[in-house]
Structures are given as structure tokens and as C-alpha cells.
Amino acid sequence: MKRSYKLAGIITLVVVALDQATKAWILANIILYTTHPVIPGFFNIVHVLNKGAAFGFLNRPDITWQTYLFFATTALAVVLILHLLRAALQEDTPLISGLGLILGGAIGNLIDRIRFGEVVDFLDFHYGELHWPAFNVADIAITLGSVALLAAFLRARKAPPEE
After folding, report:
1. Phi, psi of 10 (to 5 degrees)
2. Number of neighbours of residue 160 by Cβ within 10 angstroms
3. Number of helices and strands (H, E) in the chain?
């Protein structure tokens, strides 16, 4: 098996396991729509449900097509990630890691959509009037993976052409 598949697979499995374990804990221990301050005025553990995308994007009860959109987007992302992994150089660890993070996050949130029709979010940061929508481990992985991909692509653009 190609090294890129192994590394990305391990990262994907770790992300899905952490994501689903934290969500299971929230479901078992935190009542829906309650807030538990961890660092008052800055960080809460909450239990909210999100029909939308990361950080509450498209989280509206009046639209029902978003579930189909997210299934299609996840399927497309998986195909694209597998294609990029096949093309990745063995030593391009940032690219491979980023792809594994994104894949793990996408699968983690997809599991919620299949099980509940929406995603469990529980990390809630705010400061004064500034408030970031609640998110979860899968969202963190997708964000970090996207940053790693961007860094890998920018690094590749700056590399001198091979002769």
C-alpha cells in the first residue's frame, strides 16, 4: 500500500474516532441547547444541532435541500481527496496530512448527518459582543487540513521548476 494512503488513513481514522467520541460524550452528558461555561466570558461547552455546514453556514430550518447538498459535497470531496492522494509525492507529508484531516472531518460530520440529519456542535467561543458559531472536532480537522493544503500548494508554486 502506498505510504500516502497509510498516513492519510491513520489520520482519517484518528479524526473520526476523536470526533465521534467527543460527540458521544456531549450527547450523553450535556442537555440539548444548554450552555456550560468553561472559561467565563470566553469559552463554553454547549450542545447544539446544526443542519448547515461548518460554523453554522446554511443552518436554516426553512431549507431542506442542504442535506442532499452536503451528501453530494462529501462524496465529491472523497473522490477529489483520493485522486490527490494518488498523485501526491511520498515525501509530501503536509499535503498528505492535510488531506487526511479533511477526509476525517468530512466523514465525522457525514456520520452525524446520516444518524441524526444534522451535526452535533459543542465548542463555543466568544469575547464580549463577538461570538463564533459553535463547532466540533470535525470542523477543526477540516480547517487545519485546509490550512495544510494551502501551505502545501503555496510551497509547490514557489518551488523552482524541475529540469
Report:
1. -65, -45
2. 5
3. 4, 4
Read off the pLDDT of residues 143-152 as tens digits, 9 standing for 90 and up: 999 999 999 8
Q: Would you give the distance in Å from CA 153 to the centre of its chain?
A: 20
Question: Percentage of the chain with pLDDT > 70?
Answer: 89
Angle at 61 between CA 55 and CA 64, to 5 degrees: 100
Show Cβ contacts of residue 135 under 8 Å, excluding neighbours closer than 6 positions: 54, 55, 121, 123
**pTM reported for the whole predicted model:** 0.88
State CA 122 to chain mean position distance: 13
Cell numbers representing residue 78 in the block = 472523497
Proportion of the chain in helix, strand, coil states, percent, rounded to 5: 60, 15, 25
In percent, how much of the chain has pLDDT > 90? Answer: 62
The residues assigned a catalytic role are: 121, 139
Residue type, 94: P
Q: What does residue 49 show for φ and ψ, rounded to 5 degrees?
A: -115, 140
Which of 15, 16, 42, 45 has the alpha carbon at shortest distance from 28?
45
Query: How many CB atoms are located within 10 Å of the residue 22 CB?
Result: 17
- Closest of 16, 31, 26, 25 to residue 142, by C-alpha: 16
Question: Amino acid letter at 109?
Answer: N
